[in-house]
Amino acid sequence: MTLSSPSVIDEYCNKKGVSMRIIELARRLIAALVAGLSTVAAAADPAVIHANRVGSRPYTEGFIGKGDDRIHYVSTGEGPPVILVHGFPSFWYAWFDQMEAFGACRRMIAIDAPGAGLSGRPARDADYRVARIARQLDRTIAALAPGQKVTLVGHDWGGALAWSYALWKPQRLDRLAVFSAPPYDLFLEMLADDQAQRAASVYVPRLQALNRESIERLKVPSTLFETAYGRAISEGVLTAEEGELFRGALSDPAAIDAGVAWYRANIPPFDAISPRGGWPRRAGTITMPVLLIEGSEDKTFAPTLAKRARAKAENLTTAMLPGVGHWTPFEDPQAANALLGAFLGLPDGRCPGS
To answer: How many whole angstroms separate alpha carbon 328 and alpha carbon 346?
Structure first.
């Protein structure tokens, strides 16, 4: 029996000779306290509080798993499930524009990837290997959409993970949409044989050399924040309040170290990359519909990405967003959402009535 149960209050107060007016006041006070505690527990993420204040429909959050295997997710809307996985350095809120655009006719579920946001943060680099994280993603999908096929959407590392998951478990997906990323195994192939890709990825060994001590000493969180989001804030792509949400998500050196662990765990020295590397290690291509969206100003990947990705997907649609850099989901959300909405099969690329 809970503390707020009327019978418990009545019994206690009757024994003490407390008046009915005091009993009623006690009930109201305890009910208010319980409601307040519930609200705090349900809104632990400042980004969820913000989304509920400015969004067009309710946003709820929850967790799948426990401890280091915990995945934090945020959900809005109703309809067929769409699961969104962000990249680095970021967290679930990177998908807010898509969640707002399609929540009227889709259940939009954005997760904090392992090591980011409120998800678990394993200490070992090995725990961030793509194969292990794909298995964790598989458990997450099964818990969030039991018995259903889902549309999987990823950006950056989340996109590389989504590609790999689709190659491994195509039967779990209805379709795949990727922003600014190749499949993980293709990325390794490009690093092995494409000098343009090696030149674009010179930052990778520098990231891999970081550890917790150097991340703090060199003030890497603030540098990454300014590099990734400073321009978007100054140009009004993100509001100042949204900028603070990203700053908060990137402020913990442990979160940055976890993001760097993805690079340490999955990318060997370029000259040591094996042609048979990557995951999953099997022949074949994805037959489901796949959408690849790139930004014309993105310097992260070689220009051959879209052409080479066709070897991984038989039913691939590619699109280039003019004037957009690496942050394709939110630099031009109207253009990105039009492409994604059409790919989802929505009339005019939008939810009916929106």
So the answer is: 20
Domain 46-349, CATH number (from 3.40.50.300, 3.40.720.10, 1.10.287.1260, 3.40.50.1820) = 3.40.50.1820
Q: Tell me, what amino acid is at 27?
A: R
Q: Are 179 and 97 in contact (CB under 8 A)?
A: no
Exposure string of 92-118, with b = 16+ CB inside 10 Å and e = fewer, is bbbbbbbbbbbbbbbbbbbbbbbbbbb
Q: Are 326 and 156 in contact (CB under 8 A)?
A: yes
Enumerate the domain spans of the chain. 6-42, 46-349
Q: How far apart are CA 347 and CA 245, in angstroms?
A: 33
- The answer, yes or no, to whether residue 37 has pLDDT greater than 60, is no
Whether 324 contacts 298, CB under 8 Å: yes
b/e per residue 3-22 (b: at least 16 CB within 10 A):
ebeeeebeeebeeeeeeeee
Sheet with 107-111: strands ordered across: 60-64, 71-76, 107-111, 81-85, 150-155, 173-179, 286-295, 313-321
pLDDT digits (tens, 9 = 90+) for 277-336: 789 977 678 999 999 999 999 999 999 999 999 999 999 999 999 999 999 999 999 999
Both structure tokens of 133 = 């994280």
